Amino acid sequence: MNAPDDTGPARPFHHTDTGFRNNHPDGWRRGSLWAWQRERWSKGVPKPPAGGWTFPSEVPNTAWLRANRSEPTLTWLGHSTFLLQIGGVNVLTDPHLSPRASPLKLLGPKRWMPPAIEVEALPHIDIALISHNHYDHLDEATVTRLARQAGGPPRYMVPLKLAEWFKRRRLTSVTELDWWQIFSCLGLTLTFTPVQHWSARSAWDRDRSLWGGWRLDHPQFSLFFAGDTGYSADFQDIHARLGPVDLAALPIGAYAPRWFMQVMHTDPDEAVQIHKDLHARHSVAMHWGTFVLTDEPLDEPPQRLRRALAAADLSEADFWLMRHGETRALALRDAPQVRMNPHLRGDTRARG
What we know:
Elements: H1 33-43, H2 62-67, E1 73-78, E2 81-86, E3 89-93, E4 127-129, H3 140-147, E5 155-159, H4 163-167, E6 174-177, E7 182-185, E8 188-193, E9 213-218, E10 221-225, H5 234-242, E11 247-251, H6 258-261, H7 268-277, E12 282-286, H8 300-311, E13 319-320, E14 327-329
Parallel strand pairs: 3-4, 4-5, 5-6, 10-11, 11-12, 12-13
Antiparallel strand pairs: 1-2, 1-14, 2-3, 7-8, 8-9, 9-10
Helix pairs in contact: 7-8
């Protein structure tokens, strides 16, 4: 009998026989979904005020955004969807511009705030970053409508084992990455990073595809998009590998009750800690004010963020609370820089 061949690369820790797991499983102790539902049934769920929640919003200048090829900007379209314009490239994060975060048209979480821009009014999207496959982050209607935009579909950047979902829908301009893999596109460097979360679109595919965040590097600007995450040591790891970031888009909502949500969703205090862990020059809040997903009032996250910032001796100039539809100009670094990843070994570049 031949001896086993142990000369090949070891399977990454986060890969399992059936899918994937988090990097720091000692902190991953998910509570019972049924216990949460029993608690909601017995104690009740916070109800919206009369007339519902309303939030300040702005009407984006879509004609200007479509024509813009030189000014670096960020526009918040709601929930975790941002339009980033950098270096003449249009990037959309977790595109969701539909009425519900659900596989059903008439059931499931409904938007309280309409999409700031409809798909057809967007500038041509060159790159769509997908963090994971949950319905409030990967919306089939939005990504398929993007594929029909004038000028051709975007490049869909997706986690490992999610490309097949796109290809079954005839969306073939797709590149999937594992954690720490890198892809260069249109003058940008994209790195897929670990965060603490999970994946599923049904009761039968839990953790079959990967989840994560995206680090985007332009010679004079960098963005970290966290997707959906609980707090973990992953953010210290990200800083150790990739260095500080100019702007981090961090989730601040969908955190209650903490005994159930803590491992998978950060609250505002934890978002401020992630801002520090990443050594972010600025951060921007997301994942709030759009869908009722959990038990805190929809308008509570920004109030708690302001208190967390004050406690950390930070302000909204450091950690932005954008209005729905708001566009902000981004400051570029004066001197172009080339980011090096000294901790990345071997060929981590993805092809697609």
